[in-house]
Amino acid sequence: MVGSHSAKRLVIDLRDCHGGDNQKFRALLLALIRDVTINQPGKVFVIIGRATFSAAVNAASDLERLSNAIFVGEPTAGAPSSWGDPRKITLPNSGLIVGVSTIDWRDWTPDVSRPWIAPDIPAAASSADHFAGREPAMDAVFCFPRQTAFGDILENVVRAGGGIETIMRLYYRQKSDAVWADEATEQAMQRLGAYMVSTKAYREALVTFKINFRDYPASLSAALQTVQKAQESDPQNQALTDLAAKLNDLKRLQ
């Protein structure tokens, strides 16, 4: 359907999906990850929320791992590691019928204690939104700029409320995808780090510069110049001083 309609974006809405058969989602997942025309950063969005539960969380976990989707909305109601696929059993003495989970579904990340899947772009819904007919999550998707360059996508996600965990996931996903693995990301990450310095998000800036340094050691000079320029405008800022010191520690490791 996506191919026949020349879709520019695909939105998978899992907000009110309480679960079901885990196997039935496989066909959609495979179709999506095989379609390189739509499975691109900035083109696929998954909406999750407080009613996303059970198999729907497993579907979101698969999309998080295998697709280029950006997640919008609220944290899921369930954890990506949980028991599921219940089987009906009749108790021998009472005759009561109970459902017993039969499969221990595991999150794709090493953190089996992760309580939920969090959105990359937070868009909480309120009762006022509901009664006014507003859709904050869909509005966030519609308002997301249509730029396709990786650096633009990173910065737009951060501007929309994305944190460092999102940046790390998007970055390593880009680097591990054969389609984009050879694409240089040094300038994109430097630009993002500079933006974070300008917004005083110094912890996030340090992580961004460190990631860039690991793959592009020469990028450290540009990172230091960015911080030094900020220090000239704000010489009493201790957080900037600490950031510069940590970057200099990296420089000594070269």
Could you walk me through the main structural features you see in this protein, from its secondary elements to its overall organization?
- The protein has 254 residues and is an alpha/beta fold.
- It has two domains: 1-78 and 107-144, Alpha-Beta Complex (2-enoyl-CoA Hydratase, Chain A, domain 1); 146-254.
- It has ten helices and six strands.
- It has helices at residues 26-34, 55-66, 127-132, 136-143, 150-159, 164-176, 186-198, 202-215, 219-233, 238-252; strands spanning 10-13, 44-48, 70-73, 82-90, 97-105, 121-122.
- The strands form two sheets. It has a four-stranded parallel sheet with strand order 1-2-3-6, sandwiched between helices.
- Helix 2 (55-66) links the parallel strand 2 and strand 3 (70-73).
- Helix 5 (150-159) runs parallel beside helix 7.
- The protein is elongated.
- The termini are far apart.
- The mean pLDDT is 93.
Indicate the multimeric state: single chain
The CA-CA distance between the termini, in Å, is 51 Å
Number of helices: 10
CATH class of the largest domain: Alpha Beta
Instruction: Give the beta-strand count.
Output: 6
Radius of gyration from CA coordinates: 22 Å
Shape: elongated
Q: Kindly estimate the percentage of residues that lie in beta strands according to DSSP.
A: 5-15%
Per CATH, the superfamily of the largest domain is 2-enoyl-CoA Hydratase, Chain A, domain 1
Helix content: 40-55%
| Count of domains | 2
CATH architecture annotation name of the largest domain: Alpha-Beta Complex
Query: How are strands sequenced across the largest beta sheet?
Result: 1-2-3-6
Major sheet size, sense and barrel closure: 4 strands, parallel
- CATH topology of the largest domain: the name is 2-enoyl-CoA Hydratase, Chain A, domain 1
Mean pLDDT: 93
SSE series: EHEHEEEEHHHHHHHH
Q: In terms of structural class, how would the helical and strand content be classed?
A: alpha/beta
Q: Which spans of ≥5 residues are poorly predicted at pLDDT below 50?
A: none
